[in-house]
Amino acid sequence: MTVREVTERYALLRELKPSTIALYAMLWDRFDRFLGRAATVDDFDDLVVARYLRWRAETPGWRGKLPSAASVRKDRTMIAAVWTYAARKRLAKEFPELPRVRVPETLPIGRAYTADDVGKLVRAAKKRIGKVGGLPAKWWWPTLLYAALCSGERFSALTSLRWGQVDLERRRVVFLAATRKGSTRDIERSITPQLAEMMAQQRRGPEDLVWPWDRRHRSQWASLQVLCRTAGVRYRGFHGIRRTAASYAAAKFGAEAATMLLDHYDPRLQRVYVDPLIAPSGFDSLAGLPEIDLGDGPSV
User: Would you state the pLDDT for residue 299?
Assistant: First the structure.
């Protein structure tokens, strides 16, 4: 049995989203390329997969760049998930015992847009021409970016929002669990009076999408890059706005507020999202140091 056939079963039972299934398809494309043939469950072998992970780490990918350690670890996690399922169903001979992939934990310094950056993006977006999803681009982009800042939600959740989930009078929006990563629960977020007024200009029926995306899949990042260049803002991706919302929440109310805003189960994830340039850590490494006598002579 091929690993793709096992993955089809696994995806059906785990109710994987199409985007996750697409990631598995790309993973098995790489695994097949490494093996030089179509992978089967017999290739669920510790040494085979360990060699693949090393090959993956050392093989340039998109744009000739080596993959990050996080990307290699993601491959390991995905392979182990399907392999474990196959072992439980006795399709594979043994359970996985794979080497760890260490990912350095780095501070997200400068990975969030500032509020001023977002303001520049919104102002530049108001000058856009043409249409997106049948709506004026000069309305679509400013309101989506502003909503991303207010809610801290991902692009996929924003572009799945329908007008029936928007209450402009109360200035509240509800993001349904089915449209959010992990599909865990609905969340309700506030929007500003300015955003409510902007959104009202294109209010439509309850079942209509607020921000329909009719462009090529994943092309939103290229569009945002163009907008950043126009606005004179360093590109940080859509997740940069999510980090912006989390960072300002943490700066005002503490790290717990960032966790609540982003709806993360693991509070440690806020370390990845809160930009120290916006919300500095409360720890002062100098606080416990005594005064040092450096002498009165000239420095050497």
Answer: 45
